[in-house]
Amino acid sequence: FFCTGSLLGQLRRRMARWSLLWHRRGSPLSAAVTLEYYKRSRAAGLSAVDCLELDSVLCGHFTAGDGDFAEGVRARLIDKDDKPNWKHGTAEQVPGELVQQFFKPRRQQDVIKLRDALARPWQQAAKPSRL
Q1: 49: Cβ contacts below 8 Å, ≥ 6 apart
Q2: Stated pTM of the model
Q3: From CA 81, how far away is CA 15, in angstroms rounded?
Q4: How far apart are CA 109 and CA 25, in angstroms?
Q5: 3-class DSSP state for residue 27?
Q6: DSSP 107
Q7: DSSP letters along 34-88, please?
Q8: Are 6 and 47 in contact (CB under 8 A)?
Q9: Exposure b/e, 19-58, CB count within 10 A at least 16 = b
Q10: What is the pLDDT of residues 12-64, one digit of tens each?
C-alpha cells in the first residue's frame, strides 16, 4: 500500500478517496480504529505478517461486539434503512483510550501467530485436525 510507482500511486489515491467516503458514511469508531491502524503500520514499518496478526486482534474486538459492526449490519442488511445509530457521532468524538483498547487482544489465545506457523509449516501440517 505504501509503495511507489505509477500504478501503485493510482491505487493509493483511489484507496484514499474510498477511505474518505467510508469514513463519512461508516462507523466513526471503525474509522478512528482504522486511522490508528494506518498510523501504527506505517510508523512501525510492519510486515505483511505483522499486519495480519494485528488484523486478527482487531477482528476479535469487532466480531465480539466491541465496535459498531452489529449496528451497521442492522441498518444495512436487516432493516435496510441505512440509518445506523453509531455509538459516537464522529471519529473525533471517539475517546483515544477506547481506540487503544482495540489493539490489545481480548484473550491471548485469540491471537493468531502467523509468524510461528510460517516458520514451521511442517509441524502445523502434522497436527491432527479437530472436529
Answers
A1: 114, 115, 118
A2: 0.69
A3: 26
A4: 33
A5: coil
A6: S
A7: HHHHHHHHHHHT--HHHHHHHHHHHHHHHHTTSSSHHHHHIIIIIS-------SS
A8: no
A9: eeeebeebbbbbbbbbebbeeebeeeeeeeeeeebbeebb
A10: 777 777 777 766 778 999 989 988 998 888 788 888 888 888 888 898 898 88
